[in-house]
Amino acid sequence: MTLNLLGAGRSTIASTLVWFFWSLANNPNVENKILAELKSNPPASPQAHLYSEEEVNRLMYLHAAVLETLRLYPPSPINHKWAKEADTLPSGHRVRANTRVFFSVYSMARMEGTWGKDCEEFRPERWITEKGGIRLVPSHQFVTFNGGPRSCLGKEVSLIQLKMVAAAVLGRYKIQVVEGHSASFAVSTVLHMEHGLPVMISRRSA
Questions:
Q1: Domain of life here (predicted)?
Q2: Radius of gyration for the alpha carbons in the chain, expressed in angstroms and rounded
Q3: What span, in angstroms and rounded, lies between the C-alpha atoms of 102 and 76?
Q4: Angle of helix 155-172 versus helix 60-72 axis, rounded to 10
Q5: What are the residue ranges of helices labelled H in 27-141?
Q6: What contacts 27, CB < 8 A, 6 or more positions away?
Q7: In the chain, N or C: fewer CB atoms in 10 Å?
Q8: Which tens digits make up the pLDDT trace of 32-69?
């Protein structure tokens, strides 16, 4: 089970981190808010910039920024299900038994009826409640990790890994995307960035 979780999450986590840093490069106000949160919540070993699971779970804005990345750039942009028996979808469409039904996770995450008129914008605030916690979105709306009894077993592990890496990198380094680079999607089962993300890295001053 452990090896399966690590193997399944390797490429999806790498893909998400690429889109995360790309999103921050295009939204410096979000990066500044994350940096302010990191400064207000330093890890027990500040010199190493390594956060424990308990420490990283206190970083609500970082958590929201990671979820927003997963919404706009789901690692698995297309998913499908098999109909065990004939059924009728909420839309009224009849589905025959043994039919494979595909759905676009990418498109569902950009539906104005679900996410509002700013659905195309990278806005972590949409995930934060008035009390400062993380807003819970039903899994049938936010389907990046699948939904219902078929939800991804590695969801929580993936979120912790993403936040730990993001906090460690942002706390020590400034990431700048090479000027002129434009992002496009690579044709793959995982939403990779075509040609990767060329960046310049510089150490942050203390």
A1: Eukaryota
A2: 18
A3: 12
A4: 110
A5: 28-40, 53-56, 60-72, 105-108, 112-115
A6: 122
A7: C
A8: 999 999 999 999 877 767 899 999 999 999 999 999 99
Structure tokens at 81: 């299900």
What's the predicted TM-score (pTM) here?
Answer: 0.90
CA–CA dist 163, 150 (Å, integer): 24
pLDDT of 181 over the 60 cut: yes
DSSP state at residue 151: -
d(CA 98, CA 100): 6
Binding site residue list? 152
Token output for 11? 């490429």
- Kindly state the tokens that stand for 129: 């409640």
The tokens 């999806």 sit on which residue?
Answer: 12
Domain ranges of the chain: 2-203
Residues 108 and 143: their CA atoms lie apart, in Å, by 8
Share the mean pLDDT of the chain: 90
Backbone angles phi, psi at 56, to 5 degrees: -70, -25
Mean pLDDT of 163-186: 93
In the chain, % helix, strand, coil (3-state, to 5) comes to: 45, 15, 45
Distance (Å, rounded) from C-alpha 108 to C-alpha 71?
Answer: 9
Q: Residue 8 pLDDT more than 60?
A: no
**Is residue 185 classed as helix, strand or coil in its secondary structure?**
strand
Cα dihedral 44, 49, 53, 56 sign:
positive
What fold does the segment set 2-203 form as a domain?
Answer: Cytochrome p450 (1.10.630)
**Residue 101, strand partner residues:** 81
